[in-house]
Each structure stands twice: as structure tokens, then as C-alpha cells.
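hey m, so remember when u said the C-alpha cells were messed up on ur end? i reran from scratch. heres the input so u can diff it against urs
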Amino acid sequence: MKVVRNQKFASKCISIIILFILISFAFSSIVIQDFSYPLTGWVGIGSFGWLNYDYVDLQEYTGYYLAKNLSFAPFPQLDLFNNQSFYPYGTNSVFQPWSLEKDYFYAILYSFFGTGPWLQIYYLLTVLINAIGTFALLLRDYGFARSAGIGFIVSFGNFYAINKYPHHLQYAVIHWIVLSLIADFLIVKRIVFKQHLSLRLILVRACLLFLSFGHDLGYMAGFSLMSFTVSLLFIAVLITNRYLKRELKLIQGIQRALKTYKNDFRSYPRTCLVLLSLTLLTAYFYFSLAFQIGKEAKSFDFTDISFDTFWANPLRLLVPFFPFINPGMDYQQFFSDVPESVGDSSPGWFLVILGTLGLWQARRQITIFIPLLIVFLLCLFYHPLLFPTLKIFPWYAFNRVGGRSTFIYPVILSIFALHINFDWLHFRQRQLLAGFLILVASIELYTAYSYRLDYKPASLDQSFFTYMEYIKKQPGEAVLDLFFCIAGSGARPGICPYYGYNSGVFALRRFHEKKVMGQYFGRLYPSQVKPYLEAGWDKLFFPDNTQSRQSRCFNEAEWSFLTDFFKFNDFAGINLYIERFPEKCLNEFYDRLGNPAKETVIPGAGKVQFIPKSSELRKQVNLSLGTKVKLETSTEL
């Protein structure tokens, strides 16, 4: 009988895993759409184009940077200060959107196979891990139906996270954080109810803690740390209270726990050893890099520097995902807030209703939810300036976007919903309530996924790869992008009037492998921009009223500066983005610097021509003079 039960249990588990795999393939056809090309171009979803669209090339660039700058001595270390970007001046590249798991994944595949759809594959795998992991963690306590249902919701019904793909991929990848929140809840529940807390669950949580360092270090990894910290403090208070009430004998409790865990290890040695090994391996690859990046970031003093901040009114929790009223509509005036993106603080009515009902029905067991409620409220009421609740945690010192915690709301509400029981209702009432909830869920799924119609993946033709290969083979360590972009929150002014067209062109390095002049950083310190301002680069930008191209050609002083800079520095040539210039100005480039050798189209940036550096100019390279060239005058014509 036991064998039969085990076989039935295994077959049910396999069936649910297969179901999740099939749903993942359907999900990928709607959300990811394309597995043919690398992530590239100016893409996103939603109506607020300046916020919800970005160059997705940035997502691949950190992996490329890791591949080219990682060393082991003996722990992993990054070369963060170099002139691979901000050429020839050099800069500290710490303020990139580091997501170490994603970056390692890309770096490994890039090193073996070159560019490819690596991040699309990675994202799909994380969604699948999220669904199956949630199911596995909850199965023992809540059975097949509820654990599978919650696995589906937190993976395929987390609308905020889904709509962050691909432009903010680091906020769409949530798997280890979701599993961390669930593991913390299960641990707290065991201790509150004085149930056996298995060694395996403790090791799972330890492993998840270190795996979470593979998420975005600026925001996402902090949510796992916050949940762990709040839960640990709550457990400490609970145990202290029991000890003071003489409900717990500390020494005997510790001795009993050690004996129990010794037996647990003997019963499941392979599982425990695998979890321990994975924890140590993850700690090796992540912790030293996370420490290095954190230390470098803290070396910058942003005390007197203002940042753009975003905040979502907590009342947005009540906004449903309906065709006629949804988070994609402009409610800024009504809520008096500044949301960053579609769905900030809005998990949808289905989850809000389900979570509220579950929490109410389990109100007599409210103690098990206290850490989750604390985390939920700290995130919901966070305002970067007026009510910085999250900044009680040191890792949130740079948190300027309140809405980025929205992805945890479906997880917490789903955990509350696990405790719903409709048995007290009459059969007819249960039918009506179930029908209403299914209707709401169906409408919200349809509405949320209809946003994906805005997303059109960019494709690359053969001329693009031919163009990049040609640049790669040219002598010279760098390429001059006209125009490059230097942008980031903090520094005023940046040097990027054509942000929507060229803020991602620096990331083309992963194709041509040359050094570049520009880069986008999440934080940009004024001293990083200073060499450009001293040289006069900001005076070479004069956009027309469309903010899409120059209003005039360069004058003689500007040409003299540009020519000297190009001549003295070791450039392979110029990437001339011809749509950023009036047509009459292009002939001046050809007359002064030579004819283009190759031409292609860069998704988002438009047509580009490569003008190779002539042998005559190459003979005049002088790197010491290259960093000293300055624009002395700039006279308007």
C-alpha cells in the first residue's frame, strides 16, 4: 500500500510539473515571443514611454562586462575601474544593474557561444523554477491543489513582474525571493505552532538566502534579506517571550534540537549535503562580488545630490485590472503620486479579495502572519523622501523607487489566501462566490496579458552582424559613437539629449568589443562627468525642436576639437548615427574623415555608418594628448 501511495504521489507531482512546463511554453509565446536574437532595441510596454521603455541592451551588457572583467584570486573579483567605457578618461563602473545570477548565466554562454538569446532562456527558466519551487515548498502543508494554484499565481499572475520584461529584466526575475518569502513563512509557522522545524527546511532557507544575492543587488536581493531579518527578529522575540514565561527551557531545548537535527541529517544525508554544497558554492561565487560592489558603491558620497524619485500611492492597491479601469490608465492627478511603471502597487482585485478573505478567516492565527504583515506594510507605505520606511535597512540606502516592491504583494496575498475555507457557506453560495472569483481572475488575466501586445521584440539582420564584425577587425582599441550618451540619476547635467535614441549604443560593445565613450549608470556621480564637461563635449549638442537630431552642423572650432580628439585617441573609427544630423551635415563628415565603409540599422538608434580611421590619422595617435583636447570656443552660426 505504501508503494502504491508513493507511486500515486509521484505521478501527481510529475503531472503538475509537466503542466507548469506546458504553461511556461504558452507564457513564453505571449511574453517573451522571440528566441532568435539577443535582447536589443528600445522596447517596453505601457503608455508612459519615457518610463516604461528602455534599451534592453543594458540587460545583456552587465553579463558581457562580467565575462571580460572577472578574475579569481582566489575569490571572484571584478575590474571596476577602467576606460572600457567613458573612453579615454575612464571611470568606476560599479553603478550598473548587477544581477549576478543573470550575469553569470550570460557570461558563461557568451564565452562559449558568443551572443544569443541567452537572457530569454534564462528568464523562462526562472519562471519555471518559481512555479515548481513554490509548489514543492507548500505541498506538505497545503496539499496538491492549493500549492499548485499558488505556484501558478506567483509565477504567471504576478502582473507587475511580468510587465517588467524585458526593459527591466532584473525586476522581472523574482524566483529566489518568492521562495525565500514562502520559506520564511513556513519556518515562522512551525515555530509559532511548536511544530517540528526540519533541518532540511533550515538548509533550504540558508541556501535561498545566498541564492538571493544573485538577484538585482540594488533592489531585489534586499527583499529576501528584509524578510529573513524581520522573521528572525520575530522568532527571537517569540522565543524570548516563551523563555521569560518559563514555557521554554533554553538549554534543554537546544540539546533536544541538536539531537533532532542529527537524526534529520542521518535520515536525509544526500539532501542535506546537496543543500550545504549548493549554499557554499553560491556563497563563493556571489558573496565576494556583492561585498566588492557594495563597498565601491558606498565610497561615493551622494549626501548633497538629489535624485529623481518615484512613489506609488498605497490606494493603488484597490485598482483592478479591468479593460475599462486598470493601472495602465493615468491616475497620477487622482492619486497625487509619481509611479514609475504600469502596475505600481496594484496586484489586482482577485488577489486583494482572496488575500483579505484568507487573512480574515485565519485571524485567530494572526501570529503566523506578523512578519509578512510587517514586510507588506513597510513596502506599501514607503516613500523615498517623506516616509522612507525601507531605509531602516542599510541595504536600501539607494532605494529611490517605491513601486519596485509591488512584486511581493501577490506572494504575500497568496500566502494569506492559502487559509481560505468556504465550507461554512451553503453550496449555492459557494458556487456564486467561486464563479465571481473565477470571472474576476479571467478578466484580470486577459487585461494584464493584453499589455504584452505593446511589446515587439527587435530583430537583427545579417548586415548588423557583418557591420559589427567589420568594426571588431579594425585596428584601434575604441570606437567613437556620434552621438554617445552619458546618463544616470544624480549627475547634473548629463550628456545625453537624445536619450531615447542612443542611451544604449554603448552596449553594442558585446558585438564589436571596442571601448566606448558613453554609458548609462543607475547612479552617476558629478566627478565622473567632469572630464567631459571640462573638455567641452556638452557644447557639441544642440538638438532641434524635435529633440531627435542636431539643429545645425559643426562650426570650425567644433570640427577642430572633434578632429583632434579623434586623431589623438586610439579609435578604430566613427559610428555615425546619420538620423541625428541634418542631411547637409553628413557630407562634411565624409569630406573631412573619409567615406563610410559599412552601414546598418541599430534597433532604436536607427541608421548608422562606420567611417574607419584613415592610416594618416592613425599615425598621429598620442594617448597623452588625447585626454587633454579641449573645445576652446563654440560660436553659434
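this time it looks ok to me. The first strand starts at residue 42 and ends at 44. if urs says something different then somethings off w ur setup not the seq
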